[in-house]
Amino acid sequence: MDHDVPGPGPSSDRTRDIAVEGLVNARDLGGLPRRDGSTTPSGRLFRSESVDRVTSDGWRAVHDLGIRTVVDLRAPSETAKDSGARPSWLTTVTVDHDGLDDEPGFWEPFWESGIVGTPLYYGQHLAQLPERTGAVLRAIVEAPPGGVLFHCAGGRDRTGIVALVLLSLADVEPEAIVADHLATVANAPALWASVGVPDPEGRIEALCAAHGTTVEGAFRAALDGFDLPAFTARCGVDDAGLEALRTFRAPVT
Questions:
Q1: With 0-12 CB in 10 A as exposed, 13-18 as middle and 19+ as buried, what is 70?
Q2: Global pTM?
Q3: Kind and range of the H or E element at 112?
Q4: What residues contact residue 195 under an 8 Å CB cut-off, 6+ apart?
Q5: What residues does 245 pair with on adjacent strands?
Q6: CA angle 80, 85, 86 (to 5 degrees)
Q7: Which residues contact 51 (CB under 8 A, 6 or more apart)?
Q8: What does the pLDDT look like over 76-103, one tens digit per residue?
Q9: How many CB atoms lie within 10 A of CB 53?
Q10: Per-residue pLDDT tens for 164-218?
Q11: 20 contact partners, CB below 8 Å, separation of at least 6
Q12: Higher confidence at residue 34 or residue 4?
């Protein structure tokens, strides 16, 4: 399947990728086209896979990018295995986005159907558990001055949900939001190869096909069905925080 989506330049090329040794799925969320004709600010919000394997040279590159906070979306069972050294200038905040232990009733049907790890569950997570994404958004708002990088394990599902919300709040063109997600899909082979794991993309596409769609189609459905006013009313972020998110926070200092 060809995952390239025609659209405005920044949303469909690789100019937003960041070069950090130890990361293969990392990019700046700046430079994306908004509906009003402007673009999102660069150098403020970033997404990636787990930073556990970032090298000392990689951390220097992170510092040079202006990033000063990492928001880790993984579960406690995952973060407990993280033995990577972090530089003293970096603030790390952990937010369990999934809440597997806290929300078993939500997750059971998805484990049974096997669609965890596909965009098929994104919309229901946002609709039923908005406070979990809201906790991530608050961590971003409350981070100290500097850029913020958020990540999960592969930078795809939990990170993808948060990116969908952030870019929707910033009123980014829907095609650019889809293209940003598909950039992660395109990075998947290199990501899994870097950790010696077989690429699961065929299985993910097969699960989506069994539900009458594709990875791209499932993500589009989640985006199209995302009720932003309902989400902001329930996510636990106040008006000032929402405005900060719409503008990608205050200028980096």
A1: buried
A2: 0.93
A3: helix 104-113
A4: 53
A5: none
A6: 100
A7: 22, 23, 70, 72, 84, 149, 151
A8: 999 999 878 899 999 999 999 999 999 9
A9: 14
A10: 999 999 999 999 999 999 999 999 999 999 989 898 999 999 999 999 999 999 9
A11: 26, 48, 54, 58, 61, 62, 65
A12: 34
